[in-house]
Amino acid sequence: MKSPFVESLEYHGFAFLNRLARLLSFRMAGRVGSFLGAVGYYIIGYRKKITLDNLTQAFPELREKERRCIALRAYKSYGTVLVEGLWAGGQAEDVLVKTCRFVNPEIVQKHLNNPHGLILLSGHFGNWESLAGAFSLRLGRPIAIIAQHQRNKRIDAKLDVIRTRWKCRMIPMGIATREVFRELRDGKVVAMLGDQSGPKEAVFIDFFGRPAATHRGAAAFSLKSGAPIVMLFFVRRQDGVYETHFEEVDCTGIEEYTNENVIELTRRHTAILERYIRMHPDHWLWMHKRWKHTEYYQSTQPVEQEA
C-alpha cells in the first residue's frame, strides 16, 4: 500500500498535468503526450522489458529493430491517450466531436433501438479514454461504461468527473453484473474493454498464438440478455483525428447461453481484436501483462503421450 505522501504526490502531479492539458490545442496535446511517452520509453523504462517480450512473442517474424520501433510508438500512443484524455475533459461539445469520425456508422446504428440493448466492446487500443465523450455525443445516446477504480481515490474521483461529463455513466467493476443487466433490459448501451488479463480461473483463449486468460463478461452478457456485441476501434490518423471503425461480432449458431457458446463467442471477439492490433500494432497497450497466467495454464494441461 502506498503512503499518504506518495498518493498526494501522485495526485498533485496528475492535477498539474490536467491543468496543463486543458490549456493546449488538440494537436499540441497529442504532441506533448507523444513526448511524455518517449520519456517513458527511453528514460523511465516502465515495463519496457514486458513490452519487448510481448512483442517478441507476438511477432517472432520481425527483426528486433522493428519490434523496438513498434514499442516506442506504443509508448508514444499511450502518452497521447493520457494527455488527450485530460484535454477532452475541459472541451466544449463542438470541439470534442471534431476529434473523431465514424467510418461505418450503419453497423452500430441498426442496433441502437434493440429492446435487449447493445454491448460496445473494445480494448486498450487507440484512444479508448478521451473519445468516450466524443463517441457518445456523435452516437446521440448516453453510454454506461464499466470501469475499474484507480487505487488513488483522489485521482479516481477526478477521472470520474472527466469521463461522465458528456452523456457517459460509470459502472464500477465490483457491481458491474447487476448494473449491466439492468441497463440492457432497459434497451441501453453498455461499453466495456475486454482485453485485460482475466484470473487463473478465466477461460483461456489463443491470442497471438498463446493461450491468454480472458474475461467471459461480454459474451456472457450478450448470450444471457440477447444484446448484440459491436466492437469499435479508434484509429489515429496523421492529422490527429480518430477514425472509429465498427465490427459486429457474429453470433450465428451460438445464440443459446451455454458454457461452450460463451467460450466460442469470446474466441470470436478476441480474434477481431487481434486482427486490428496486427493492422495497427502501435495502437495497443503492450506493457500490460496479458499472458501472466499462460505458464500456469500450460502446466495444468495433460501431457500428450507419444504413440
Can you describe what's shown?
By secondary structure, the protein is of the alpha/beta class. 49% of the residues lie in helices and 16% in strands. The protein contains 12 helices and 9 strands. The strands form 2 sheets. Strands 1-9-8-2-5-3-4 form a 7-stranded mixed β-sheet, sandwiched between helices. Strands 6-7 form a two-stranded antiparallel ribbon. Helix 8 links the parallel strand 3 and strand 4. Helix 2 crosses helix 4, helix 3 crosses helix 4 and helix 10 crosses helix 11. The radius of gyration is 20 Å and the shape is globular. It starts with a helix and ends in a 7-residue tail after the last helix.
Nutshell version of this structure?
49% of the residues lie in helices and 16% in strands. By secondary structure, it is α/β, with parallel strands linked by helices. The strands form two sheets. Strands 1-9-8-2-5-3-4 form a seven-stranded mixed β-sheet, sandwiched between helices. A two-stranded antiparallel ribbon has the order 6-7.
Measured by DSSP, the beta-strand proportion falls in: 15-25%
Radius of gyration: 20 Å
Low-confidence stretches: none
Principal-axis shape = globular
Number of strands: 9
What gap, in angstroms, lies between the N and C termini?
53 Å
Name the helicity range: 40-55%
H/I helix tally: 12
Compute the average pLDDT. Answer: 91
Biggest β-sheet, characterized? 7 strands, mixed
The H-and-E topology, N to C, reads as HHHHHEHEHEHEHEEEHEEHH
What's the layout of helices and strands?
Layout (H helix, E strand, L loop, with lengths): L3 H20 L2 H19 L3 H11 L5 H25 L4 H4 L3 E3 L3 H4 L8 E5 L8 H9 L3 E5 L5 H11 L4 E5 L3 H10 L3 E5 L9 E5 L2 E5 L2 H9 L3 E8 L5 E7 L10 H21 L14 H7 L7
Parallel strand pairs: 1-9, 2-5, 2-8, 3-4, 3-5
Antiparallel strand pairs: 6-7, 8-9
Helix pairs in contact: 1-4, 2-4, 3-4, 10-11
